[in-house]
Specification:
Elements (H helix, E strand, L loop, with lengths): L2 H14 L7 E2 L7 E7 L5 E8 L19 E2 L4 E8 L4 E7 L6 H9 L9 E5 L23 H21 L1 E11 L6 E3 L9 E9 L5 E8 L12 E2 L3 H11 L5 E3 L8 E3 L6 H20 L2 E2 L4 E12 L3 H8 L7 E2 L2 E11 L2 E5 L3 E2 L1 H11 L5 E3 L8 E2 L2 H4 L5 H5 L6 H10 L9
Parallel strand pairs: 1-17, 4-12, 6-7, 11-13, 19-21, 20-22
Antiparallel strand pairs: 2-16, 3-5, 3-8, 5-6, 8-10, 8-15, 9-14, 10-11, 16-18, 17-18, 18-19
Helix pairs in contact: 1-6, 2-3, 4-5, 7-10
């Protein structure tokens, strides 16, 4: 962006700032919090399902650049559901083939799930760059949103169907947890901090108590699903679809994929960057997940526990502010802040935190150290997409200029980390 254009955009932002009160609410005196514990005895049932969410060809694609529209279907997009039920409550983890879904839309998706408390549902976007723009930032430049309300409605209906099908398939279950390790090179890379990425491949696998049949698997391999590059315009879940298809084809049942701390900039290292590369990545990832399953141990589950906390982050980045002012980004603000949330999920000895964006890997390591939980799993892009979550020092570093431009504010990562750790965020630097 040229200096003159940047000055014009800043001036436009300042002139329009007086109108933003029309689209705002007041900050609450106290952010909402949520806590529930469901004891588990012999009543844990688990089920899984997937429903197609592939949109019609021709809509705007999320990510990479403005004005990209889909031209064909490389592979179907899906919403995948893993449900866990006890005698007293129902819980769900949803994996969606999409770049990200905003908090207001996530709440609407959850409202369509009868019998579920909204806090007991975790909605995780895979972050594929070959799915529809559900955020709105990738339409025809600043004046047109890329978000199609019909696609959000389609996603809500499919989410409800997937959860209902998973409930119908649920059976008394035993859980196993296993891990494998990514190779240091050749599959995943960090272009900003070489060798700094979560090398764990995490598998949480459910088997029926009566006959051992697979009931569903939570899979995590932390990486941007962008084997397919910016010139690719076919709808695709990227390697996530290939991984989940391979998992099922090899006899392990339905997989539900969740991403993690992939920020700044954890991405595929495979070649070629086309359909062949997608299949290659999926096959290698599936083999690693099978290694994790082969070494998996039974998971003791005494209870399922969920904690939630809302937080409000100032919308300061130029792109986000202009997106809000032009209504390309259709998001409710609260005294200039975006309402989001963090979460914590415990399934027996398995623990995960939910973060509303793309957490930078070293910040995730710092969070695990502060919580004294080295095995903690991070659910990335969970229940919201606020862009990159960096510590403030990185956010001010020119090396991370792109990530800064795609983050809601400079201190987003610090505020999220503090909300999860219970510690005060460091004071803002000047």
């Amino acid at each position: 962006m040229g200096a003159r254009l940047r000055r014009l955009l800043v001036a436009a932002t300042s002139l329009l700032a007086g109108c933003t009160g029309l689209f705002q609410r007041a900050l609450p005196d106290q952010p909402d919090q949520y806590h529930v514990v469901a004891p588990v005895r012999d009543d844990l049932c688990i089920g899984s399902a997937a429903v197609d969410i592939t949109p019609p060809v021709g809509g705007y694609l999320g990510g990479f650049g403005l004005g990209r529209t889909s031209t064909a279907v490389h592979a179907p997009l899906q919403v995948r559901a893993l449900v866990l039920t006890t005698d007293s409550r129902r819980f769900a983890i949803l994996g969606i083939d999409n770049l990200g879904v905003m908090r207001d839309d996530v709440d609407w998706l959850k409202s369509g799930l009868p019998g579920f408390a909204m806090g007991d549902v975790f909605v995780c976007s895979s972050h594929t760059h070959a799915g529809p723009d559900l955020i709105g930032l990738w339409g025809s430049y600043l004046l047109t949103t890329g978000r199609d309300r019909d696609r959000v409605a389609q996603l809500r209906a499919a989410t409800t169907a997937a959860v209902q099908q998973a409930l119908a398939a649920a059976a008394p279950a035993q859980l196993l947890r296993g891990e494998a390790r990514l190779p240091p090179t050749g599959l995943v890379k960090n272009s900003k901090r070489p060798q700094v990425f979560d090398r764990r491949v995490v598998v949480l696998h459910a088997r029926a108590r009566d006959d051992g049949r697979p009931l569903g698997t939570l899979l995590q391999l932390v990486c941007h699903p962008e084997v397919l590059g910016r010139d690719h315009t076919e709808l695709s879940p990227d390697f996530v679809g290939a991984l989940c298809e391979q998992w099922q084809a090899r006899g392990h049942g339905q997989a539900v994929f969740v991403n993690g701390a992939l920020g700044a900039m954890v991405s595929p290292a495979v070649q070629p960057r086309d359909a062949t590369g997608v299949a290659k990545f999926g096959a290698v990832a599936c083999t690693l997940a099978e290694q994790a399953l082969a070494s998996a141990k039974p998971l003791a589950v005494d209870a399922i526990e969920v904690r939630r906390a809302d937080l409000y982050l100032p919308v300061e980045t130029l792109g986000f502010r202009l997106g809000q002012l032009t209504m390309a980004l259709q998001r409710q603000l609260y005294d200039g802040c975006a309402r989001s949330s963090v979460g914590w999920l415990r399934i027996g000895d398995f623990e995960a935190v939910a973060v509303p964006g793309e957490l930078e890997p070293t910040l995730a390591q710092r969070l695990r150290a502060e919580l004294h939980r080295p095995d903690l799993v991070v659910f990335g892009l969970c229940d919201d997409e606020l862009g990159y979550l960096l510590d403030e020092r990185d956010a001010r570093n020119p090396r991370f200029g792109y990530e800064r431009s795609m983050s809601v504010c400079l201190r987003a990562g610090e505020l999220v980390r503090a909300a999860l750790s219970g510690r005060t965020a460091p004071a803002a630097s000047r």
